[in-house]
Amino acid sequence: MSSATPPAESKRILEGILFACGDPVPAKRLVEVLPDLDAAAIRQLVGSLQEEYRQGGRAFQIQEVAGGFQLVTDRALAPWIAQALSKPRPDSVSHAAMETLAIIAYRQPVTKAEIEAVRGVDITASLDGLLEKQFIRIVGRKESPGRPFLYGTTPEFLRHFGLKSVEALPPMAQPVVQEPEAPPAATPAAEPVPASPDAS
Question: What is the third-level CATH fold of 95-168?
C-alpha cells in the first residue's frame, strides 16, 4: 500500500474479514492483511467494533477464542438460534464421546488406558470419532512399557466450544465423599448385683 489506510476503512476491512472467515482469525494473520497496523492496533479496532455493537444492540459480537478473533452471535439469542437450528447436526457428539472428551480436556496429556480406567469401558469408538472431528490429537508417547499414545485437545476443540484456551474450562466439580458415620458405642450390660444375705 502506498499510504496508510484510514482507521475507519481499516475497521471495515477487519469486520469484513471476520464475517467472511467464520473461524477465528489470528491477530498475526490480520496484521499481514493490514500491514499498517500492529497487534495492539488490531486489538484496539476490535474493542472499537465491540463498543459499536453494544451501543447499537447488534445481534453479534467479536469473541477472542482459540488464539484468534471470531464474529459470533450474542449469547442472549441462543434459545431462538437453537430452535432455528434444531435439526440434528451430523457432527453432533455422542454422550459417550463427550465423557471421553471431558476426561482428555481436564487430564491431558492422557493415555487410552488411563481414560478407560476412569470410564470403566472401552473407548476405541469414542477416540476414533473425536480424532475424526479433530477435537483431539496425538501429542506424544508416554515413557512407560509399550510407550502408549498420549492424547490432548486441539484448536478446533477450543473453537467448537467457544474457549479462549484450556485454562478457560470451568472448574471440574469434585465429588463429595460422605464419610461413614461410626456406629454408636455399645453400652456395656450391667453386671448382676449379688443378693445380700438376710440379716439374722
Answer: Arc Repressor Mutant, subunit A (1.10.10)
